[in-house]
Each structure stands twice: as structure tokens, then as C-alpha cells.
Amino acid sequence: MGKLFGEKGTGLFRNENALLPDYLPDDLPNREKELKEIAACLRPIAEGGRPENLIIVGPTGVGKTSCARYVLRELSAYTRRALPLYINCWEVSTRHAILGMLATSLGEILPRRGIATDEITERIVEMLKKEKKVPVIVLDEVDRLVASPYGEENVLYDLARAKEIFGVDIALIGITNRPAFLANLDGRIKSSLAQARMEFAPYSPAQLKAILAERAKIAFVADALDADVIPLCAAIGAKNGGDARVAIAALWKAGKSAERKGTERVAVENVKDGRELGKVARELGEVETRIIEIIDEFGSVTSGELYEKLGMNERTVRNYLTKLEKMNLIETTEVRGEGRGMTRIIKKK
User: The pTM is what?
Assistant: First the structure.
């Protein structure tokens, strides 16, 4: 029993996590200028002053999220006054849920029976005045709030005008790949939210090669890649709008392909499947891309396996799966599980 899982791979990977979407490296090459600009907006927190809110705009895979998360990590190590909070608005897409996450990060225990949004806000303000903390909230894919028909973007007014309305400082960093995002906002929100604006340019082929080289050092054992593998993966990213995420995913897929075939090195032949990923990645967020990668790796997965691998709740993952089905990228089949009722098998179309 267990023969299939007892077999070991070829040992190509040293730290496979370095090629996954949520990995945050110790250095972010070619984004030093952007990191300094983000830090400049938040530096007043450490000095007892008022931070600037910031909107970051740019296409997918150009380092927007990584840079924001990197600065949050550095800031929290530098001053205890900052309270970093990262929220992806595809996963947390309502005013009530966002305020609830902020309250929870402050140590506030919210009752299971539910609580009104105004009461959550009152508790947040009380805690902030007591703890002397300044939340730094990154709202990734912030345009998702504006797309909602239920006025969820009002949370931007709550947070961006916190100083004027409640007398507490809250720093906001909104991230979007839609340049016209601000044009759709209420004027009162726009003036407070976009105190600073930063646009990320796509990576050049040379920059993508440098990024891949650094990740490869961490991800693979020494001498695991043929010489042309990194340039080819960089070219795939460059052809997809300078998208580092596509380039890194192509390298990860190549490594997995070589591992499955039992080869001792990753060759150009292992990269070819990465081109298919690049075709759709421009329309996908990090989680959707990761779902496609998981399905590519295993051929098909059950819904339960997918929830476990992503580390997300069932409802959130179902939303992503619905989006991928509408894009005609996956198909799901409902089957009866072993003593656990119905489950779904998910595979690519």
C-alpha cells in the first residue's frame, strides 16, 4: 500500500514555495524606486505624523502587490505604531467584512450573532484611540468594491476620511490594474483616497531575467536549470505584457514537468507548457492563476482538495471557480464522495 506516494522525486527543488504567487522574497529587484515612494507615504507613522493614502496602478504581474506587502513587512519591523493589514477585495468584498477584519486585527472579538456596521466602526475607533495604533490597510483589487451594486465602496469613505470623521489615522493603499478606477469614484472619496498615485510599468525582458535568476537560486538546487530555461521563461512573461507572475509560473511549471519525468535538469522542452498559462494569466488574479496551476499539476482535483491547498474557505473558493467556469477555463462535475455526500471534480476544459 502507498507505493505511488512513497516514490521520491529527482530532488530538483530546494524551496518550491519561492515560485508560488504568495511568496515574498527578501529583495525585490528593479522596484527600488517604487518601494521608496511607498515608504515615503507611510514614514510619518513612525514619526507621529499623518500618513498619505496611496493608489497604485499597473497591469497584472508588475510587482504592485509584492511591493506593498514588502513595505508593510518593513514598516511593522521598524515601528510598533503601525498595524499592517492586507485584504484582497475578491476574497473580502463587503464594507461589513472589511471593517470586521480591521476590528479583529485590533484584537476585538466580534459576536457570532452578527453586529451592525456602525457598531463595528465605533469599536474600531475606540480601540485605535486606546492603543495609539495606525492601521495600514492594503486593499488589493480595490476596483472590486466599486463594481459591487450594493455600495460597498462606501468603506473607502469610512477609512479614507477617518481623521476628519472619527479623529483617528488610517492609511490606505489601494491596488488596481484599472487606470480609470478613480474616475468612477464619488468625488468625496477620490479626494481623500488618492492623495498620492503611483503607476507601475511592465517589466522589461532583462528585468524578468534578473527576477527569475534570483527566484531560481532559492527554488532549485545548484545547476538544476539548462542555460536557456530562464531566458525562455522571461520571454513568455515579456510577451504577456512584462508579467513577472507569468514568467515565474512558467519556470515553476517547467520544474514540475522535469520532476514528473524524472530528469535531473530542467530543460527547454519542459517550458513549452508555460506558454498556455501566459495566454490566460492577463485576465486572472493570483488566486485564479494558482487554481489553474494546481489543476495543471494534478490533472483534476476535488473541491475539498482545492480548499485545503489554497487555505481558503469554501465560499471564497466557489466564487473563484464560478469566475473560471464563466471564462470557459474549467469544468466541474458533481459526484458522490465516500460517505461524505456530494463533492465536485474540477478539471480544465
Answer: 0.79
